[in-house]
Design a protein that fits this description.
The protein is an alpha/beta fold and 535 residues long. The protein has helices at residues 2-15, 156-169, 219-237, 240-248, 259-268, 294-303, 320-331, 367-378, 401-404, 411-418, 439-455; strands spanning 18-20, 28-31, 34-38, 51-57, 64-73, 84-88, 106-107, 112-118, 127-135, 174-181, 187-193, 206-211, 250-254, 334-341, 344-349, 398-400, 422-429, 461-466, 478-481, 484-489, 495-498, 503-511, 515-523, 529-530, 533-534. The relative contact order is 0.10.
Length: 535
């Protein structure tokens, strides 16, 4: 008995000691409570042709291992084909290959994790410092008391309080992160909701909501705050619809894009002027501030040229908030998005800008799917599809942007022309800054529509473009649909998503270094048809 106690005490004592691999080490096996590893020769440039593997195990079989990246700088490549770091989870699941900038933190599913670092024969970087810690798996939040919905106008600090409360209540499905700061230094917060927050999972689509782009249009912000509370509560309660949504979708929600403008509007409240707080701190309308790609695409439609991922420059006139959002939508492979506004009651779809010499409906090549997406919101909203939408008369509660009125530099057109993302603008209230007493009704009106619209991201076609020689996904492959002059590009793992209405299509996957493959595909009204390509 005495020997057992001594052994147990020694084990507990050793497990609490930090472990650190020497700076010249390339790999190793660790069984420890916490510690640190570095790339070879850190902080000097790591060597070429390195192949290092570290295996980290927790002493206690039921513990998990948390990996945090303190510093990370590996040679960048769009597919991390040269130098990369990759993590193998306890169950054998591989993370994406990481290079360039710092990866997200990682929590293992069991008590072991393996880290692989590989460099090629040329060009290096400063390398990395990784901390690791073993401990109990985070509380999944099941059984936690539900969070009360909140029906008042939140200040910026109160927005963060709601996000923090949701993260605390649903820690295993949430991640709070910032995309930058506003002109006046207010943080642009995003809440991610997913069963693996911080990680892109192959073939799982990514979705975003953006609220309060115009600071005085506040209904979107308030319904998004209640949406994240609702999703957290229902996930913990075991609501199968919400559990399925969160476990199969990576959802990003930004309650406010314009916190500086909202501060001005909030001070005046419902009695403020029609444009009080609309603009950012520099007096700029952020929905007229994105690079204008419409003129380029309209020219290309006539004379030929790219039909997707158009090149653009960031001029000095692009505001801080706009720059951060551009970086955000370039960083994540968003498939579908909505920008929530106020002042009308309608689902607005691209194009927002009329074509040269015309006035009225400006149709994209994806007009059919845009109309389906708009109807998914309007018909699931309590009143939007009715005959009287703020007395403006939008049939079925939807409109083409340019048919309503033409604008340039808008966010939804930029999403469509610069990335794979289809974005719509949802106008949620006839009154821009309504009285607090009406906020519960706005939530009730929009709840079903907000959920139904996210579910639309699972329609159409999805799959992986695979290198038949090596069995790996081919990033940057082009997915073309015959008869629709707008292509999408496969993400870094070779996965792609193409939102389409039901029907039969001829789809081609191609890459300049790998050739192409064409398949006839039938799209149904339910979940996306899975079609993989091998080239």
């Amino acid at each position: 008995m005495f020997a057992y106690v001594v052994s147990a005490l020694l084990l507990a004592s050793v497990s609490a000691l930090p472990h650190k691999i020497t700076r010249d080490a390339c790999g190793g096996t660790l069984t420890a409570g916490d510690g640190e590893i570095t790339s070879p020769d850190y902080p000097s440039i790591y060597p070429n042709d390195a192949e290092c593997t570290w295996t980290i195990s927790a002493y206690i079989p039921t513990d998990v291992v948390t990996i945090s990246f303190i510093s990370f700088n590996l040679e960048y490549h769009s597919t991390c084909a040269f130098d990369f770091l990759q993590i193998t989870d306890s169950d054998g699941t591989l993370s994406p290959k990481y290079c360039g900038n710092r990866p997200p933190d990682f929590i293992s599913s069991g008590n072991t994790v393996t880290i692989r670092f590989s460099s090629d024969y040329t060009i290096g970087g400063a390398g990395f410092v990784i901390s690791f810690a073993a401990g109990e798996a985070p509380d999944d939040g099941h059984g936690a008391d539900p969070i009360d919905l909140e029906f008042f106008h939140h200040t910026h600090n109160e927005v963060e309080d709601v996000i923090d409360n949701v993260v605390s209540t649903c820690p295993t499905i949430t991640r709070k992160y910032s995309i930058g700061e506003s002109v006046q230094g207010r943080t642009l917060w995003v809440l991610e909701m997913s069963d693996n927050p911080g990680r892109h999972e192959q073939s799982e689509p990514e979705f975003k909501y953006v609220g309060n782009m115009h600071g005085n249009e506040v209904v979107g912000k308030e319904v998004l705050l209640n949406l994240i509370i609702y999703l957290c509560n229902e996930y913990n309660a075991g609501n199968t619809e919400i559990v399925d949504l969160i476990e199969n979708t990576r959802i990003h929600i930004m309650p406010t894009m314009n916190p500086d403008g909202h501060r001005v509007a909030h001070d005046d409240g419902a009695n403020g002027g029609y444009v009080t707080g609309r603009y950012n701190a520099n007096g700029i309308d952020l929905n007229r501030n994105f690079p204008n790609l419409n003129n380029a695409i309209y020219a290309n439609e006539i004379s030929g040229g790219p039909n997707h991922h158009l090149e653009y420059t960031i001029s000095e006139s692009v505001e801080e908030e706009t720059r951060h959002v551009i970086d955000w939508i370039e960083e994540y492979p968003f498939v579908l998005s909505a920008n929530l506004h106020g002042g009308a009651l309608v689902a607005n779809y691209p194009y927002d800008q009329a074509k040269p010499g015309t006035w009225g409906y400006s149709q994209t090549p994806d007009d059919e799917i845009f109309r389906q997406l708009a109807l998914a919101y309007s018909t699931n909203h309590a009143t939007m599809s009715g005959a009287d939408s703020c007395s403006r008369g939008f049939p079925d509660g939807i409109t083409n942007g340019a048919e309503w009125y033409s604008l340039s530099g808008g966010m939804q057109d930029f999403n469509y022309l610069a990335t794979n993302c289809l974005e719509l603008t949802m106008e949620l209230s006839c009154m821009k800054f309504p009285y607090e007493s009406t906020l519960s009704q706005y939530w009730s009106d929009n709840k079903n529509a907000l959920i139904a619209y996210i579910q639309e991201v699972h329609k159409g076609v999805k799959g992986v473009v695979i290198d038949t020689a090596f069995g790996e996904g081919i990033a940057g492959s082009t997915i073309s649909v015959e008869g629709i002059d707008h292509d999408v590009i496969a993400d870094v793992q070779g996965d792609y998503w193409r939102l389409l209405t039901p029907g039969t299509y001829r789809i081609t996957a191609s890459h300049p270094d790998h050739g192409s493959e064409t398949k006839d595909v039938t799209v149904v009204s339910g979940l996306a048809t899975v079609i993989n390509f091998g080239i």
